[in-house]
Structures are given as structure tokens and as C-alpha cells.
Amino acid sequence: SSILNAPLLEYLIYHSASFGRPGAGPAIALSFVLVAIVCGFASVCYAELAAMIPIAGSAYTYTYATMGELIAWIIGWDLILEYAVSNMAVCVGFSAHIVDLLDFFGIHPSARWISPAYLPTGLSDFQGNTLLEPGWHFGFNFPAFLIVMLLTVILIRGIKESAGANNIMVLLKITAILVFIGFASKLIHPANWHPFAPNGWPGILTGGSIVFFTYIGFDSVSTAAEECKRPQRDLPIGIIATLIVCTLLYIGVVVVLTGLVPWQTLLDDAAPVVNTLKRLHFGGVRLVVLVGALLGMISSLLVFQLGQARVWFAMSRDGLLPKIFSRVHPRFQTPDFSTLMAGIVVGIPAGLLDIGTLADLSNIGTLFAFALVAGGVLILRYREPERRRAFRAPGGPIAPILTILTCLLLMAGLPITNWIRFFVWMIIGLVIYYNYGRKRSTLRAVAR
After folding, report:
1. In Å, how far are 155, 158, 323, 326, 336 from 333, measured between CA atoms?
2. How many angstroms separate the CA atoms of 195 and 214, rounded?
């Protein structure tokens, strides 16, 4: 349930046309199916490793156990990028929905303090009037910043309280999604689906490259492995069930939304579902969906912030980051410093950048992590074939091999700017590793 990132539907539907890439249009539904298949292979790889190595840290821990310290650092550094940037984007979407909620009650704050400081296409109202010019402006997206800091306090107080609140929000947001699908499906205009795939297979494939951003939730399930009562049983069930349920809900929403209005009308909108209902004057349903969307984003932020802090915690415990990152609060028994820093690292950029810029940054890291996890499955199968596996990816080596190949295929569909930013981030990480982590790692200390 943690991967229902509703504010990114608009981005996935049209924004892939940026940088010369063909957009998917209504065929984004097929992109979701394609990526669900790819993620299905990745999910069983995650499930196998999570059941074998039920320790906090997710892909970082798995690669540490299978590929060694250097590769583990690379994937851990990659996961920091993945979780942080994805949550920044969700924060921006949350802010857009808060603005809609305030508008519902006739409250209209200054646009400077409820929108990102960087707006590549500017900001306009429904009548087309320009509110802010394209580029940087003096301002800060305070709703995006405040929500992540509030959740940081909740996470520091404890996983049990966080999990209880998250379960309630999950139920409410799924109810809101079903309300939207049930109501809007009666108003679909099939003509809006023509052409269904305006750019054919290249558009669908490009949509798949981008849609991976919204599928990192089952990854974050495994980051809290140490806090599961029965990880060998619970983690595979949680990972695979999350993927299946969310894929069905994603497809339902995009099929209905693109049938309700022409997909071109969803341009430059971080709250497409709610604003579509507003344009069509469906006030009651709009409020239900709006509240559900807000709760959905809060629960997504909650899980991703928890996952990010656990990765930092695991890396620090291995000596690759300063020991303060693995500090545990004496009362709440949570990694308080890692959680606080994760909140700051996400909150400030979320106040400055737009949703499209942030979403693009996360995709390549997600795909890279999936490929390395699949590689870890193959390595452990070869090195330790007799090791007990509470869950085994079916089909022998088929699932991990297909995971690697399909991830590489989708990575090839990402723009060159993604690759440049990714390599820059990796270079920074390697500099930190060779100048700090390598000298202080627990593994090397034991070897000495």
C-alpha cells in the first residue's frame, strides 16, 4: 500500500514527452502492466533475500552479504538518492493537494509560500492567468516542508505508533480510490482514449521507464525487516501482495482518468485527479478523493522516510557512515538522528523544486537497485546453494536474469540528464567511501 503515489499520475501520463521522449498518453495503463511484470520478477528476488537476510537495510544489506563492501556502499548511496528524491516529489504533490483543500474552503494563501521556488513552466490558475513566471522565484513550498518534518517526529517516537497510523490511512486512501473509480467510471467518454497510444510502443516503453518511480514501495517493506515478528513469512507476503494490489489500483485510476477527460488537459498539474473533479464541478466526490489522496501521500511518506533512515542506520552500523547515524533513542528505541537527518534532507529540497524535476532523479536509482538485488540472488544461489530459503523465487535463475535484463532495458529509456546526475551522485559517494567509510568500516576493522 505504500506505493500509491497519486500526484505522479499526471507526470507519468504526459511528462515523458520532455527531452524529446515520446509520451504514453492513455496507454500509460499498458506501461503500468509492463512495469508490474518487471517488478514482479524483482519482487520475488527481494522476497527471497528478505526471507534469508531479515536485517534492516534492504538492498544495501543484501549486496553487503553477497557482493562485498564496495558494492554495498554503492547501492546504499544509491538508495539514499532513491528514497530521498522520491519523497521530495511526493511532498510537492502533497502540497498541491493541500492547496486544493484550502481552495475548497475558500482560503487562498500567497502562491509564493505554497509552491516550489523553482517552476520550469511557471504557475497559472484554471483561467490561464500567470501567477509565477518560469524559473526561480522568491518563495518556499511550506506545506511540503512541514509535512515531512511532522512525520519525522512521528517516526522518532516509534515504529508501532507509525504502523498503526499508517494502517488507518491505507484503508482510507484505498476507499477514496475506489470511490473515484466507481463514480467516474460512469462518466467515461471512450473518445478520450483515441488514439490510445499516440506514440506507439516507444511511448509505452518510455512511460515504463518513468513509472518505476511509483513502484519502490515494496522495496521499502524490506528495510524494516528487523521490526517484523516473523520476517521469513511476513516479508514475502508483504512485498508481493503490495505489488499486486497497487498495480490493480494504478491501472484502474489511469484508465478512468484518461477516459474522463482528454489526457492533454492534465498538463502541469501535480493534483490531476482532484483538479479534474474540480473542473467538472463534482464537489462532494472531489472532497472525498482529496482527503484520501492526502492520507495516501502521508502514508507513502511515512514508509519511505522509515526506509531511508533504516538504510542510513545499517550503513552506519557497518562503519561506512559516522556512528551517530546508528544511534538509537534511549526511550523510543528508534534511530533518531538518522530519522531527523532524513527529514531535513527531504524537507528543504521539497520546498524548492518541482515534482517533475524530482521524479526524474529517482528512476535510475530504483532500476539500478533492482538489478543489483537480482544479481545478489544469483550469487547466493551459486555460493550457498544449500542455505535454507524460507522463500525461493520460482523458475530457477529465470526471475533474477529477467529482472536484470528488463531493468537495463528500462534504464536505456531514461534521458541522458538522468545518467549524468546519477554518475555525479555516484562519484560523490565513492569519494566519501574512499576518504571515510573504507578507513572506518567494521569489516576492515575485524580483518585487521
Report:
1. 11, 7, 16, 11, 8
2. 25
d(CA 305, CA 155): 8
Task: Extract long-range pairs of 194-197: CB within 8 Å, 24+ residues apart.
Answer: 195/25, 196/25, 196/26, 196/27, 197/24, 197/25, 197/26, 197/27, 197/30
Helix (H, G, I), strand (E, B) or coil at 225: helix
Question: Cα separations (Å) of 336 from 128, 158, 326?
Answer: 45, 9, 8
pTM of the model: 0.73
Nearest to residue 340, comparing CAs of 314, 298, 309, 311?
Answer: 309
SS3 content of the chain, % helix, strand, coil (to 5): 75, 0, 25
Half-sphere exposure of 370 (CA within 13 A, CB side): 34
Question: CB–CB of 179/285 below 8 Å?
Answer: yes
Amino acid found at 420: I
What's the pLDDT tens digit per position in 247-306?
Answer: 888 888 888 888 887 776 665 555 667 777 777 777 778 788 888 778 878 877 887 788
Tell which residue, 425, 371, 3, has the closest CA to residue 213. 3
What's the rounded Cα separation, in Å, for the pair 110 and 131? 10
- Smallest CA-to-CA distance from 391 within 271, 263, 237, 254 is with 237
Q: How confident is the model at residue 417 (pLDDT cuts 50, 70, 90)?
A: confident
User: What is the reported pLDDT for 219?
Assistant: 59
Fill in the DSSP letter of residue 125.
Answer: -
